[in-house]
Amino acid sequence: MAESTKVTVSTTVNGSPVTAEVEPRTLLVHLIRDSLGLTGTHTGCETGQCGACTVLLDGKAVKSCMVLGVQAEGHEITTIEGLAPRGELHPIQHAFWEHHGLQCGFCTPGMVLSSLALLDENPDPDDDAIRHGIEGNICRCTGYNSILESVHDAAKRIQRGDQPEPISADESPRSA
Amino acid sequence: MHPYPFAYRRATSVDEALQLLASEDDPKLLAGGQSLLPVMKLRFAQPGTLIDISEIADLRGVSLDGDTLTIGALTTHHDLESDPLVAKHAPVLLEAAHVIGDQQVRNRGTIGGALVHADPAADYPAGVLALDATIVARGSNGEREIPISEFFQGFMTTALEPDELVTAIRIPAPGEATGSNYQKLANPASGYAIVGIAAVVTKAEDGTIASLRLGLTGVGEMPYRATAVEDALVGQEPTGDAIRAAAKKAVEGIEPLDDLHAPADYRRKVACNLTRRAIINALDTLQA
User: Fold this and answer.
1) Buried b (16+ CB within 10 A) or exposed e, B133-156
2) CATH of the domain at B101
3) Same domain for B64 and B37
4) Which of B135, B152, B172 is the last residue of a domain?
């Protein structure tokens, strides 16, 4: 049986340098959730099927249950917490909210990060390109059509230069 | 889900990786990890040491030298499907890369890793067989070239020695007058090929088929060339009847896999139909 001593990982998460002590076998998703306490990254299947644990590694979407924590050494990770300050919504989050691109919300952090990576490469994707870009993210609620609408709207918001912003009181579902 | 414990070493050069392969206890190379890590999480594999080669920059990227296209072993599926040289000289490989797994897997998984993993339902094996590729490997005895016809040796088994690693895939860049196509019936859950077929074809001046190579994946316990179909069509006029008759030999001499997703007889029928379609589409790309 191999050794299971911990190693130190130095990486950048949401723009800030962090270090964590993990076993080599610790998956990146567990480093993010358990060592760093960033629980916006969800563990769905842990077998690489569902995409709920999607984060950006150097700007590219990866499933954080299919990468070792030690492999983040020297790289840049973006999680859902890194998209907008607390209390504000990134334009993609705003579009998902506006178009009901979620119901239970479990897949949403991964879905939003896959959308971000897609729009970064292809600022104006058609339906096929969106489906291709988010095919690694499973949603069991929406049937995907409202997610397609959300990503199209997110593309428009980003192209016109929208910035993260708080939800105003008159937009809040509670005030309806 | 955790793999069994293992030691982790990151190699920054091929030489260092080879040294670690020789010195570490029960070592295994980690490239993109999109096949190996799931297998380790399921505890089907239990390496003593993982040697992470994913950061060796020399092994990444595509180049053209004369009429040889060289694809670094660590080129990701996404890099490959976005590469202009691949688009021009080996478009059938681009078609295959485009339908591997999903975006996250394509961002991380590598062509070298996929080929050495040798999953019988992987997409690239069909393409590299049809392109008559050469696998370049380095080991303690230096570099050697393995013709793709000798690389796949059985179920998830290749000609690679335990002390070797794949550094590149070389492909003869075909002339302008080469047509190709990849056809795939994907398992809707896993995305793996139930049947995948790559066709690469050239025509003679008189309109007959000058050369045809067909790589099939997903059908048998290892990828193979459908030589019976190739032999039946080379030198012939590519008429619909001739192609239809020849494509029926796509599974000749092969015992098709049989599982709940695709019984053997269904696989045989799909393989013959998609072979016909791949040949016709490949010929169409010639005329375009």
Assistant:
1) bbbbbbbeeeeeebebeebbeeee
2) 3.30.465.10
3) no
4) B172
Asked if residue B63 belongs to a domain, the reply is yes
| pLDDT bracket for residue B188 (50, 70, 90) | confident
Contact flag B7-A135 (C-beta cutoff 8 Å) = no
* Chain A residues touching residue B188 (CB < 8 angstroms): none
* Global ipTM: 0.93
Interface check B108 vs A, CB under 8 A:
yes
pLDDT in tens, B204-241: 999 999 999 999 999 999 999 999 999 999 999 999 99
Total domain count for chain B? 3
If one counts every other C-beta atom within 10 angstroms of the C-beta of residue B70, the result is 19
Residues constituting chain B? 288
Domain with B44 in it: 7-52
